[in-house]
Amino acid sequence: MTKFDKKTMTEVRALFKRYAVKVHALLPVLHLVQRENGGYIPEGWAHYVAELCQTTVNHVRGVITFYNMFRTEPPGKYHIMVCTSVPCGLCGGDKVLEHLEHRLNLAPGQTSKDGLFSLEEVQCLAACDKAPLIQINAEVHERVTYDQIDALIEEAYRKPA
Amino acid sequence: MAKEKLLLLKNIREANYKGDLDSYRKTGGFTALEKVLSAMKPEEVVEAVKDSGLRGRGGAGFPTGVKWGFMPKGTGKPAYLVCNADEAEPGTFKDHLLINEDPFLFLEGMIMGCYAIACHHGYIYIRGESIKSAEHLQRAIDSLYKEGLLGKNIFNSGYDLEMTLHRGAGAYICGEETALLESLEGKRGQPRVKPPFPAVSGYNACPTTVNNVETLANLPFIINEGAEAFKALGTPNNSGTHLVSISGHINQPGVYEVEMGVTIRELIDDYAEGVRDGKKLKALIPGGASSNVLTADEIDIPYDFDSLMKAGTMMGSAALMVFDEDTDIVELAYRTIRFFNHESCGQCTPCREGTNWLKHMIRDFMDDNGNGPMLERVDRVAEGMIGTTLCPFGDAAGAPIRIFVAKYAADFRNHFAQ
Prior knowledge:
By secondary structure, chain A is an alpha+beta fold.
């Protein structure tokens, strides 16, 4: 259903109180839409959010397409972000990405057919002293090695979240 | 390792420090806030910070007290303080350390900052990717409400303050203060035309000051120990200590707190224990991806705002990236421009198109398809981005490329087509 449940609506109302006008809460509201829909903003929700935040659907779409983290396609249950920016890239980030591409048979931007993994090449994750770095959903993994990556993937296969 | 000068990391460097509200209070936390709210007028806080010479740690190095002084009075509109916790400049990770391990230090500073500019609702803008840090910070804010250190009548002073944590959604440009304000208003993060500056028309067209996390974290020391004690640290016009993020080909990457003016050589050799694997230094970027590269011969300069400016680069957010003798500067330039191309908001043509052209041209060098005229073209396109865009992004993307070409032309020539 293209509608927040009662509990989430309570959160939305609390959010609106934190800003001068409703539309200012658009980013946090879109984060809630993603949380409630498995990490993406399904078709139809832009209209609902526009109505809720008292703005136009074009404004909402403009915001969704501007920010990297807002998605209109479902990500994998494990969304893997790999930093290849300076300095991660110069400390092995590219090779980590290549390893993951090979291991998961995915290119950056793709989601596996079973919906378990998606891969994204990202810019700086603000932990450059621990390069190379990947982030799986909310969890950051520092100074990763191929073995660690393989272990994480094996674990994910064993217990799909 | 050489000894750090600990003001901001004093708690964090204690082995058993937990970073929760109780631990922070046990170290004397919130005594500065109590002093401010019970015995100081807002103007006196502004004066103290002006006297201390504190300069913003987010990148521009603008004097914080002067910035606060720009806030107009008697406009009849609410005033806002927004803390910039967007930390997204490649090479920078010092604000995350403060947020994750001692959040109450900068939060105490922020409450005092809000009081100083008569703000009753402060916002913290944290980058979207930092999900765990945001959750951690929200818990810290909640505990301040619970203890009566936020909300109505803090310390029975009659001062009320609300605080809201706002998560971004993955856009480097939102670290630019007017883009940040757009984003806080639920819009695409595209920088505004200035003037008007945020002090006149910021969040919701009201007077607004944007301050960096580390900047605010200095306030408890300035209030407790006095402006003079702060000014006694560092070099003239560059007061205090600061947090330097060191990364790249280095033995001990991490955040180091030093007085302003410690030389780059000392930072690399004495603090971060030298270039990795016994290799020689080839190049270093002193202040995040937007700052101009320095060669191995240029490291005996003091690491402060003014000395780096004089050396033709900048301290920026104090992100020192170290590159060893095996580094191909063309690859470094390519990564830098690819980052800027990805993060350009697309509003101004020189930046949107320029970063794209540069990316493709430098990619050609990576594929050993470069030539002399093309190298000149790289320089010309980069030059065309400088000073021609609404926000400093064009300069930040263009200037470093010009300097890579100027200082390391040989690396580019290695990639000429045979």
